[in-house]
Amino acid sequence: MTDALLTLENVAAGYGQVRILRALSLSVAPGAVTALIGGNGAGKTTVMRTIAGAIGAQAGRLLFGGQDITAWPAHRRVDAGLVLVPEGRLVFPTMTVEENLRLGAIARRARGSARTRRDEIYDMFPRLRERRDQRAGTMSGGEQQMLAIGRGLMADPTMILLDEPTLGLAPVMANEIFAIVRDLRARGLTVLIAEQDVRQTLAVADHGHVVENGDVVLSGPGTSLAADERVREAYLGL
Amino acid sequence: MDVLLSGQLLFAALITGALYALIALGLNLVYGTMRLLNVAHGDLVMIGAYVAFWGLTLFGLSPVVGLVLAAAAGALLGWLTYLGLFRRLLASPQLMRRLEGNSLLLFFGISVILQNLASLAFTASARGYQFMDQVYRFGDVALTGNRIFVLVVAVAICAAVYLLLRFHVFGLAIKALIERRDAALIVGVDIDRVQLAAICLGFAIAAIAGVLVSTTEQISPFMGFPFTISAFVVIILGGLGNISAGLVAGLLLGVLEVYGVALTSAAYRSVLIYGVFIAILLVRPQGLLGRGSVVR
Ligand SMILES: Nc1ncnc2c1ncn2[C@@H]1O[C@H](COP(=O)(O)OP(=O)(O)O)[C@@H](O)[C@H]1O
Ligand SMILES: [Mg+2]
Fold first, then answer.
1. Which residues in chain A touch residue B169, judged by CB atoms under 8 angstroms apart?
2. Residues B284, B278: Cα–Cα separation, whole Å
């Protein structure tokens, strides 16, 4: 795929001496939803954090929008429009919803238009508007997830990385999150989503990569992955 | 009891408190953003004091100019310390985990070096100079000009830094870093730059406080340690890394000290400060004014 927005070429990464990814390659098409599926501990979060620059690549190359971003620090990637909504949400707990959103727009690219985008995000998530002065740490998991996504959108991303956005959420709330993912694509964003809820994820995703043991073992369109024998057996319990 | 109600004592408490708040503000910035335990903080106060002293004695520069020179010297030392020592340690999550403990030892070494260099260069004897020592009367309160100078400058700088943190994007980044480093990184805070700015600002504030101290007290190479202690008491009182609570805690410690000494005697000054310190650690280790535990 030469017209990919994001490409990882033989990327190695990990924590200290421990290598989790050895030579992982994948690509993400612009304007589409791409899914990373795989069991607990497969390495999806490590891939996400490496793309965001929260951990450095020890080998290989990352290309975003045609530029080599391998050596870029995390804030520079945000400034280029590549934004992570992390696993566990990582909102600022003693800050209010409003302050969390302000921080989402701290990247230079986002500062000027922060007010209008905040209002758009409040339109998208009316519950955040109701709770704008509430401390983020006192909100429910679903509300914190909406805030984390809202904070990510404040950076005016061209590509958003969603790491386990439905983890620990009630099914109704999880459905809301998947509706948001569809909405983001409709707005023209490129989405990379890592999820344990494989059925719903593949229903939304245009394309998917199956990650096992720190490597991509299978790739394909969402619908064909959902029909794949191995995927059905390992992740859909069929 | 009359003396306890006097405006004289109130102003004494305010002046001491404002100075404590100022010194602790610098320490808190460095601790909050990087989890560095700067036990050399009081020695930066000492350096600021000597900058003012030599500026006046050698070049006839007013301590007002000394404020600017000391701030520059403090910032320069912060810059050197960050680039020379801590930048690499902070960049690696593995090294960073042990940094809080290691920083204590590193700064202890820096403290010893600064004190010894200062006594080699300036001799160990105490020095002082006259500055604004005419007495002003406000009702029943009599204050020397230099003490008014201390109060005004300390309050002004605390207020300026508070407003900067409250309203400037740099303050937002600092607060993010203090509250949750991993999330600050992800939203796009340039952590390296913010850390450098925080350490330069923190050191500059300590040096400015040194200029203030030198206008009212004798200075010596070993004057720093009590300021380190009081600054730690203040930031523990306010909750480590909690900047605005630290400002209130500084005033509170000033009040405790000045009124405590007035009720007992000057001999009890250190006992009071250490007593507060130990009592807080026993009763409320998260700080008297903090909101629960510090988030890391
Ligand atoms: N901070 C860390 N330090 C060391 N090992 C880690 C750390 N985080 C994750 N790992 C290890 O990396 C592997 C992949 O984890 P992760 O990327 O979180 O997988 P997933 O997101 O697919 O569940 C796991 O074996 C996990 O134990
Ligand atoms: Mg994960």
1. 106, 111
2. 10
Q: Residue B81 and residue B73: Cα distance in Å, rounded?
A: 12
Cβ atoms of B221 and B122 closer than 8 Å: yes
User: Residue A20 sits in which domain range?
Assistant: 6-81+158-234
Dihedral sign of CA atoms A117, A119, A124, A128 in order: positive
- Chain B residues in contact with A75 by the CB 8 A cut-off are 185, 188-191
Q: Is the CB of A37 under 6 A from ligand 1?
A: no
Residue A145 lies in a domain: no
Report how far ligand 1's centroid is from the alpha carbon of A215 (Å).
13
Helix (H) or strand (E) holding A82: strand A82-85
Ligand 1 mutation target, pool A21, A46, A51, most atoms within 8 A of CB: A46
Q: Which residues contact A208 (CB under 8 A, 6 or more apart)?
A: A34, A35, A36, A37, A201, A202, A219, A220, A221, A222, A225
Cβ proximity of A155 and B187 under 8 Å: yes
Ligand 1 atom 16, closest CA:
A43
Q: Domain B2-283, what fold?
A: ABC transporter involved in vitamin B12 uptake, BtuC (1.10.3470)
Q: What is the pTM assigned to this prediction?
A: 0.92
pLDDT tens string B88-147:
999 888 888 889 889 999 999 999 999 999 999 999 999 999 999 999 999 889 999 999
Q: Is the CB of A50 under 6 A from ligand 1?
A: no
